[in-house]
Task: structure prediction
Amino acid sequence: MIENTDSTVLLDTDLPLPLFIRGKIRDAYDLGDHLLIIASDRLSAFDVVLPCGIPRKGRVLNQLSVFWFGHTAHIVPNHLVESVDNVHCLDTYVSREKRFDYPSYLVGRSMVVKKVERIPVECVVRGYISGSAWEDYQRAGSISGLPAPEGLQESQVLPEPIFTPTTKADTGHDLPLSMDEVRKLIGDRLTEEIREKSLAVYNYAREYALDKGIIIADTKMEFGLDGDRLILIDELLTPDSSRFWEASQYQIGQSQPSYDKQPVRDWLVQAGWDKNPPAPMLPDEVIEATSKRYQQAYQRLTGSELVLA
Result:
């Protein structure tokens, strides 16, 4: 069953705390040694934030990340300190004289995390050929410069998952990085460690999700350094950072029914948008269908209902 009792949309936050960074989707506030990260309902497509939000999307991103951080901590530690399930937990991180009436929307869509040094590499792992990888393969017969078998079809499973890192751009497009470029950027040891951990997290999650009837075609993750310790940061294995496909409808040679925002991208292309801002407003039916897909992904993977404020 899909929970629809909270249809409000959170596009902006404005807390009386120092703003650390405002991203396309998340707002982070400075808590000293920690950050308060809030997942809004904003939606981006083709690197442009749309004028409309998707109800409950931020809650899915936050709560699914919390779920996966817990399930992958045996593979690699992460930045999560605690999920904000009760606003008064913030009293631990906000001094008495700076406390305020915490808004109820923080429950279920925010988390307190360690403040660490971000590694400037987007760690992409692909288990199936789709999206930009499929376009790359059609054009060059390779995937992000890596050799690939001849005769692959769209959405086909790869012989083994591949690590295809990119730049981490605050604005605009992420750009592919070769392994040599990553080594020059962060060093040999760290390059090998993020590759190894990225593949390990993906392989674990892919097997877990397949048991729930969902294929994780690809995903991207970010890492940071807590001193000299590598940890996962940002979000993890959400519909925004991954391609989730319905396993029961999987067929190679075509695009797949998905639990991500691909239908939004498809509608924007069909509407003739040139991918430059401003983006057009989505129709109500596309917004509602996208919200349902995000919630279905959460419930299929976790077996739990979404927590609402």
About this structure: Residues 161 and 203 are 8 Å apart (CA to CA).
